[in-house]
């Protein structure tokens, strides 16, 4: 069993990562054992459908610091990350993806920087994305540029979910009412003292990416609508532009009528109708995104459900249901319908 009060917790959300699991365990354990201080690794299995769960169970037999949390269903990367962060017990908590594009070897550097400068947040910033495709680099740059415009300059460019958080920052996240926050925006918004550690981004060690174009677009849409009302202002300006265009068309019609040059004008009518229809549908779509978020908040459904925790201790999530013993499970885990 892991230490009750480890100096460091490392949270690793994973979904269908059986192919990269041995490499991850080898490199991560070597990096953490070198710290010579108590730690725990919190692996969050986000409802994997391959042999990830079996692989984690096998690793846990040989790696006592490994703690396995299994979610009842696939809740998404951010939900799995939140589940691990809020149940981690370390005085410092590092989040890292399982694909080894973020090197575990610089965790010690992040921890040393946080202690030396009394920082609550240390971001792992990608100094080079040459391993990514040109399209991925272009879309990532556009995303961070947009987020910095909407949220502020405190959002570090090229910083994903590889970061170190102090216990104070974790408790601040716990107090937020949001059930599925976009952490790469919420964490800078907290305003804690922060620093950066730069690294070279490597290629994925094994397996396939879990963030195709559709998921990147969904993340961008969720980031914008969860953290800014700017799209609603865009809808307002589009409506004003539509009114202005219609006003100009009315003036042109009056002038044409007064000069006796009235002709059948179906092209202009068609353009006006299509333009106004497009603006109205766009505005309705933007309003719908925000209404959907309100609807989700009113439902108050948890972003994830904990199926089992191999070392639950006394770390219950806020609003969690009473814990129950499973009828049968591979690990001596405790079931809890956990809420944020």
Automatic annotation (TrEMBL):
Query: Which residues does the UniProt record annotate as the domain Glycosyltransferase 2-like?
Result: 9-173
**CDD domains, A to Z:** DPM1_like_bac (cd04187)
Q: Where in the cell is it found?
A: Membrane
Give the transmembrane region(s): 234-257, 269-292
Note the topology in the membrane.
Multi-pass membrane protein
Cellular component aspect of the GO annotation: plasma membrane
The UniProt keyword set, sorted, is: Glycosyltransferase, Membrane, Transferase, Transmembrane, Transmembrane helix
MF annotations from Gene Ontology: glycosyltransferase activity
Q: Which Pfam families match?
A: Glycos_transf_2 (PF00535)
Q: Provide the coiled-coil residue spans.
A: none
Q: Where is this region: Disordered?
A: 309-340
InterPro entries cross-referenced by the UniProt entry: Glyco_trans_2-like (IPR001173), Glycosyltransferase_2 (IPR050256), Nucleotide-diphossugar_trans (IPR029044)
Q: Which family does it belong to?
A: Belongs to the glycosyltransferase 2 family.
Q: What is this protein called?
A: Dolichol-phosphate mannosyltransferase
Species assigned in the record = Asanoa ishikariensis
């Amino acid at each position: 069993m892991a230490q009750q009060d480890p100096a460091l917790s490392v949270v690793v959300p994973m979904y269908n990562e059986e192919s990269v699991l041995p490499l991850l365990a080898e490199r991560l354990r070597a990096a953490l054992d070198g710290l010579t201080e108590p730690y725990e690794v919190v692996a969050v299995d986000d409802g994997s459908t391959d042999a990830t769960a079996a692989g984690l169970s096998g690793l846990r037999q040989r790696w006592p610091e490994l703690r396995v949390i299994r979610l009842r269903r696939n809740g998404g990367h951010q939900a799995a990350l939140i589940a691990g962060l809020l149940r981690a017990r370390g005085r410092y908590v590092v989040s890292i993806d399982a694909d080894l594009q973020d090197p575990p070897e610089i965790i010690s550097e992040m921890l040393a920087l946080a202690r030396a400068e009394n920082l609550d947040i240390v971001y792992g910033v990608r100094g080079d994305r040459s391993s990514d495709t040109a399209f991925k680099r272009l879309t990532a740059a556009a995303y961070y540029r947009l987020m910095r415009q909407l949220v502020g300059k405190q959002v570090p460019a090229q910083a994903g979910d590889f970061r170190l958080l102090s216990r104070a920052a974790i408790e601040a996240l716990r107090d937020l009412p949001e059930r599925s926050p976009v952490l790469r925006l919420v964490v800078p918004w907290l305003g804690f003292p922060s620093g950066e550690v730069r690294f070279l981004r490597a290629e994925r060690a094994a397996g396939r990416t879990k963030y195709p174009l559709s998921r990147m677009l969904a993340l961008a849409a969720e980031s914008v609508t969860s953290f800014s009302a700017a799209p609603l202002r865009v809808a307002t300006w589009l409506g004003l532009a539509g009114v202005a265009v219609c006003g100009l068309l009315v003036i042109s019609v009056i002038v044409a009528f007064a000069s006796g040059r009235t002709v059948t004008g179906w092209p202009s009518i068609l353009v006006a109708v299509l333009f106004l229809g497009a603006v109205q549908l766009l505005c309705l779509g933007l309003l719908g995104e925000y209404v959907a978020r309100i609807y989700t908040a009113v439902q108050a459904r948890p972003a994830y459900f904990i199926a089992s925790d191999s070392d639950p201790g006394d770390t219950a999530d806020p609003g969690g249901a009473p814990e129950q013993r499973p009828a049968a499970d591979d690990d001596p885990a405790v079931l809890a319908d956990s809420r944020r």
